[in-house]
Amino acid sequence: MAMKPKVSSSQSALPSRAGRLFACVCGACLLTACGSGLDDDDPAVYVRAVNLVDDSPTLEFSLDDTAIANVDYSGASAFGASHAGQKTIALATLTPSELVDDDDDDNDEPLPVNLALQQDFSAGTDYTLIAYGTLAQPQVLTVSGGDDRSSVSDDKGAFRVVHSSPELGSLTVYFTAPQAGITAPQLVGTLNFGEGTAYVDLDLVREADLIDTDGSLYADLTFTVHDTGTGNEIFRSDSIGLTEQTRGMFLLAPNRGPGPAPVRLIELLSGGTSGEFLAPGDNAVVRFFHLSPDSPALDVLNSSFQNPIAQQVAFRGASPDGAVNSDEVSLIAVPSDNYGAFVFLEEFVATPDAHYTAYAIGPLVNVDAVVLSDDARSVPTQTRFRFLHASPALDDEDIDIYVVPPGTVLNFDDEDDIDDSVKTYAGLAYRGSTGYTTLKSGTYEVYFMRADTTSTVLGPVSLQAGAGRVQTIALMDSETGVLELTPISDTR
């Protein structure tokens, strides 16, 4: 039977708004103001924050007027001390750069989110604040307990599970931990949204065939989650390492796809690190974008003629997303009207729930594919973009890229070199891509220069960076060899 921690949730009265990382992340910065002003004799509570708001940027969590943590999406902060008593939980979005320093500090202030939740914080209690929902309709789940920061003895580990996926009903959770003698699935608990289990204490032993007898003990945890009503399994994890003297909280959090598992696990440790674990059997998706100016319409196949990802895609055209297994993927491109010919073969390893785009780049005589992992999550308070060098005419040229406010004049020093302080990306090679840049939405100008020179290849070109957009911007050749920019939306 599951033990239920004290929980509460709040939501704004605004209408809902639609609003996703596969990796272990360290997702937050704990602000020292959280514990400032506490005397040794003051009754204290310890609070950490988790950001599961679907369409959020980095969120600032505050208690009353004191900021306690800045937390990235899917991240968590460490615990910080605060005074006990009734407090107002508030959220704000951090402001991205707009490339302009106008000395107006107000422009850099966090922007409040429409949420004001009153919460009583009792001395001697640990609190985990889980923000979820959307920026238009934010909500906070408060999970409290007295053991989240407690130490764990040598040769032991401990964990608990919390249901923090509001769209799902009752879930039943099982686990195995061979190094703790649990080789068959054992019940952790049956949980409704907002409920959590008590801590499961594990007695760890060293495996007999291990050569290293001095290293820390650990348990390879695996979790399976079932829909309680139907009994169907909806999530199964890979093994998750839990070392001795570690106390972890696992959140059953929403998975925004492609899926099909509707949940993912987020691990919280008292020190603030968090890890995200997706169902290893979940699909990825791949789309195809044709940027080869003299190539015919192409079909792209996944390993065989029976598995087309894209069909009849002409120059500048794109295919819908096609599902692929989260494993090694082999993309084969052939002319749509001649499956006997061969254009390219591209292999890559797809990870669960990831979005990819395969770009055909180059002239027909040596066209090749570049596969990029896409950030498919739209955030309405910012814009994100990256650049792709897809111009065969510049195949032997590395490119420096400058993104500046409209009307900016690039500065030159005495040696006629452009001031590196305004250089956004340096030395982008043919078929290479940059990382994403995050800015305030608006209009910018872009210059493309031959690397380490003052020779302009293209620019200034206006870049329309709208709110919520995530774009790959391809520097490419037209059919007649003229350079052009093609913005490609990465959101899904």
Alpha-beta content class? mainly beta
Mean pLDDT: 89
Rg over CA atoms? 26 Å
| Uncertain stretches | 1-27, 32-36
Q: Alpha-carbon distance between the termini?
A: 40 Å
The number of helical elements comes to: 0
Number of strands: 38
Biggest beta sheet summary: 6 strands, mixed
With strands numbered from the N-terminus, the spatial order across the biggest sheet is 2-22-21-20-13-16
In helices, the fraction of residues equals under 10%
Strand content: over 45%
The global form is globular
Written description of the protein model:
This protein is mainly β and 492 residues long. The chain has strands spanning 7-11, 24-25, 28-30, 44-51, 59-63, 66-71, 80-83, 85-93, 111-112, 117-121, 126-133, 138-145, 156-163, 171-177, 182-191, 200-203, 218-227, 233-236, 240-243, 247-254, 263-269, 274-277, 284-290, 298-302, 308-313, 322-324, 328-335, 344-349, 355-361, 368-374, 383-390, 399-404, 425-428, 437-439, 442-450, 456-465, 470-477, 483-489. The strands form eight sheets. A six-stranded mixed β-sheet has the order 2-22-21-20-13-16, with no helix packed on it.
Quick structural gist:
The protein has 492 residues and is mainly β.
Task: Give the tags.
disordered N terminus; six-stranded mixed β-sheet; globular; mainly beta; single chain
SSE map:
Blueprint: E1 7-11, E2 24-25, E3 28-30, E4 44-51, E5 59-63, E6 66-71, E7 80-83, E8 85-93, E9 111-112, E10 117-121, E11 126-133, E12 138-145, E13 156-163, E14 171-177, E15 182-191, E16 200-203, E17 218-227, E18 233-236, E19 240-243, E20 247-254, E21 263-269, E22 274-277, E23 284-290, E24 298-302, E25 308-313, E26 322-324, E27 328-335, E28 344-349, E29 355-361, E30 368-374, E31 383-390, E32 399-404, E33 425-428, E34 437-439, E35 442-450, E36 456-465, E37 470-477, E38 483-489
Parallel strand pairs: 4-11, 13-20, 23-29, 31-37
Antiparallel strand pairs: 1-12, 2-22, 3-6, 4-7, 5-6, 5-8, 8-9, 8-10, 11-12, 13-16, 14-15, 14-17, 17-18, 17-19, 20-21, 21-22, 23-26, 24-25, 24-27, 27-28, 29-30, 31-34, 32-33, 32-35, 35-36, 37-38
